[in-house]
Amino acid sequence: MRSTDGRLWVRHADGRRAPLPVLTWRGGLAPGDASLLRRCAGPTLDVGCGPGRLAAFLARRGVPVLGIDVAPFAVRLARRAGAPALCRDVFGPLPGEGRWSTLLLADGNIGIGGDPGLLLGRAAELLAREGRVLVELGTDPEPGRGPVRLEGPDGRVSRPFPWAFVGPGEITRHAAAAGLEVVATWDSERRRFAALAWR
Question: Entry's CDD domains (predicted)?
Fold first, then answer.
């Protein structure tokens, strides 16, 4: 599903609807991005890169970076923005497995697949031993998981897909299940982040 005017919502299983910041994702750096990007050291994999604003910024700064996304349209936008990007699923074969210095799970992408423990386990497989996983956390104190749908301004609704929402109180448990530990947390511009490393 695409949005030509920046309006797109996520519809939760309980009926709640929340707007998605499509224009922010497709624009320049968003508030809080700088605090995340300055922690990207060495080869960086941007998981669920979307239109590529983070990967494109790193590429312009000379950081070796690759964006991956399952949506071909998003990958085309990322490439147009100047980001090296592939249409790949994080759970499938990827270049550089076990050698990435930084993995980015920004813009809510800790929710990919609906199982944060499984996703972080895969992140650990991709990560170099001295690497870091940089995660954006939800600000809602009530974490959760379940099927969600995307809803467009014309009323069209996508098929349901699994997603998860992880708050600061949940990330330690999910990290531990993947053999990782939380080594730093920080807030920036009303956003919350955590850095994970091998235990």
Answer: AdoMet_MTases
- Give the three-state DSSP class for 159: coil
Residues with Cβ < 8 Å from 99, sequence gap 6 or more? 43, 128
Q: Where are the beta strands (DSSP E) in 44-143?
A: 44-47, 65-69, 85-87, 100-105, 127-137
- Residue-wise pLDDT tens digits, 96-126: 999 999 999 998 889 999 999 999 999 999 9
Measured CA to CA, the distance from residue 14 to residue 11 in angstroms comes to 8
| Cα-Cα-Cα-Cα dihedral sign, residues 93, 96, 101, 107 | negative
- pLDDT tens, residue by residue, 17-31: 887 767 676 778 899
For residues 134 and 151, give the distance between their C-alpha atoms in angstroms, rounded to a whole number: 28
For 28, the domain range is 18-198
> Residue 190 corresponds to which amino acid?
R
Specify if 132 maps to a domain: yes
pTM for the model: 0.88
Residues 67 and 84: their CA atoms lie apart, in Å, by 6
CA distance linking residue 111 with residue 90, whole number of Å: 12
Q: Does 134 reside within a domain? A: yes
Written as six digits, the tokens of 78 are 């990322």
- For 76, other C-beta atoms within 10 Å of its C-beta total 15
- Which 8-state DSSP code applies to residue 160? P
CATH code of the domain containing 158? 3.40.50.150
Q: What's the number of domains the chain is made of? A: 1
